[in-house]
Fold these 3 entries.
Entry 1:
Amino acid sequence: MQTETHTGLDCPPANWWKPAHKSEKVWVGIAFAWCLVLFAMMPLWHWKGGQNPSGIRSRTTPDAFMARASEFIEQYQTGEEGGIPVVSPPPGAHVYLVAFAYQWMPILKLQKDVEYTLHLSSLDVNHGFSLYPINVNFQVVPGYDYGLRVTPNASGDFRIICNEFCGIGHHTMVGRVIVEDVPTAAALGGAAR
Ligand SMILES: [Cu+2]
């Protein structure tokens, strides 16, 4: 019997006109079924995934957003660190965070288990809001004010990393969110006894 040898340079012997093997048909079936599962996940995840923004968004301008953020900072500023204001807004407040090359402003001091509306916008180019070490990511786009309903569920000292390359100082663009575990009235009552 003559054996044929093939190198990578030769075409493999053609067999496309022969019927597909049963196992090949099974795999095509499995792949098709999986395609349908993944397709169904797209709309399903939209409703069930819990990762969607709240839908609060409006057009703005860098000047208008900066003016609103300055007002917010003036109203609730409680300190300063390295020239950046530290702001402690009350529960339920509209919180403004400004991104610009290469800073996040202000430093936010939030309370655990309290809902805020976090407004994000950029004064120059696209930036990426990435809360470290928690996996929260959001695009910060100039000209748009995005309002996210956020409820911090862990206390700690978090960093905001810019995850959208924005220029030569991109790697230094680190902001800060401090979440404080404020004891509830019930817990305080328990401690007083
Ligand atoms: Cu950046």
Entry 2:
Amino acid sequence: MQKTIECEFCHNHFSSASERCPHCARPGLFPNVRAADDDDERNALNRRYQEAISDAASRKTDQAAKDFEAAVTRSQAVIARSLNELQRLATSDNELYATYHQLVDAGLRLPSGDQWNTLRVLTDETLFSGYKQHIRFAALSLDRIGLHNYGECSLVLRDDMIAHRASVFEENSVVWMAKHQIKISEATDLPKGYRAVWSERVKLAVAKLSEKIQSTTRADSYSGLLLEQGATSEDDQFIEVHIWGQMTARTFEHVIVEQPQQQMSSVTLNALREKLGAVGVKMEIKS
Ligand SMILES: [Zn+2]
């Protein structure tokens, strides 16, 4: 059942998926954040978190779990894209980072017919009912490197530009839907405790991963635990970040380009670095 919320101003009710009150048009919270902030979701996540902590205590790995928890407070949202896409974004403030659904709706991209894309559409419709065209995806990262399967450039998002409109999800949401065998009839009543608001992303990370942490787990392996690069995008292991709304190059804090293609000249790369620098984004090349 779609939840309704009360407008803080006019006190009328409206669908929690709306970004504005339809009666007085005042802006509301971001619908993905509101969904994660729901009492039932928070309580379920708290239960998972407490269970993970007591399980760690019984295995005498609670100190290690605490160290991991402290590290994840520094995690950032990272989008991985191709160098071509980065170049386009760096061109001007008018270049927006579009979502898959926007590109399809605008006729700029043909919806791909493979199974993965069909599942993506169904998943987004279920998780972001009524607002899927506004959601951008990122992965939670501790070393500022994103998922290699999506491109060689890691776009690290500025915390202050996304914290208010970002929520996090247990894993790749398509994989999660398949794993939990979600049926269409259950789409409005999904299992709870698998998403969190940005400020509580640490709880989700501990609930999900503390069982993998031993007392011998070293701090330098935390980033590989949080984000594990897979052979294909289906095998990637990560916490998915959902960000409502537009972004431009100014939304980035830092950009890391890994192994630039050889045909990309140093002149081109330097020009790119200059353009990004002009909007306050530092570019780093890793070979
Ligand atoms: Zn209102």
Entry 3:
Amino acid sequence: MSRANPRLKALVLGSAAGGGVPQWNCGCGVCRLAWSGDQRVRKRTQAGLALTVDGLSWLLLNASIDLRQQILATPALQPKGEGRRSPIAAVVLTNAEVDSAAGLLALRERQPLSIFGTQATLKAIGANRMFDAVDRAVAPRRAVCLGEAFEPLPGLKLELFAVPGKVPLWLEEGNVGVDDIGEGTVCVAAEAGGARLVYAPGCAHVTEDLGARAAAADVLFFDGTLFADDEMIVNGLGDKTGRRMGHMPVAGPGGTLEAFARHADVRRILIHINNSNPILIEGSPEEAKVKAAGWEVAFDGMEVAL
Ligand SMILES: [Zn+2]
């Protein structure tokens, strides 16, 4: 049945945080299960969504370092017909982290596409000359102001908005603010034909603005990096809390489940999930807890039609 209105569709290209699942050098509980092929843990690539309204041309929300593998796994993103022409028409970057932006390097074969991001994100990318391999003459970079609507694909309206976060890991120096609100960490509000989606893969805490945007959305993809704030430390995987990494925990006081308890009408999906997070083990008590709270756990290849 054809519809007069454009229809928003999202594909989860990758659902994991930096490193993916399993991570190349990791033997944490979740990674050990994944390495051994245990059916309870799905392998996952690093986070990104693809959006479309006509099913033909696509927008990427972030270009993870796993992008080539994600395209291989996603027929809709593969070239159709002859010549060099990808269905990927545009990319929006929410920050300049390696796991959000390094995949641009996989898009360097003179494919016309537009790369959108805040001034701060494009400045960080622009300061790294390796990204000049993605020719600006064919893949122009377009700075977008916070709160300003733009249309990266016909019929798809987007707005970037700030949430608390921090600068990319590779740009950290001195005392790192982990609660900065500015162009460094942004989320995406997308709208097509009245359907609304919010993509928030990194967020240190929920602001009033984010809460209101989430309430107005049909679906919310939200930062599921760590289940517990001290998860990295307790598991001997690192010395930083989740909050120090700019990610609020899923559970506990001030965590995601608590912060969005009022949003029961919104389809809520955890994404950007670190390999240390036990919600990645199907049947675990932690997975049961997020499901009982009304959340879904994103997986690679998940489709959300609105
Ligand atoms: Zn691991």
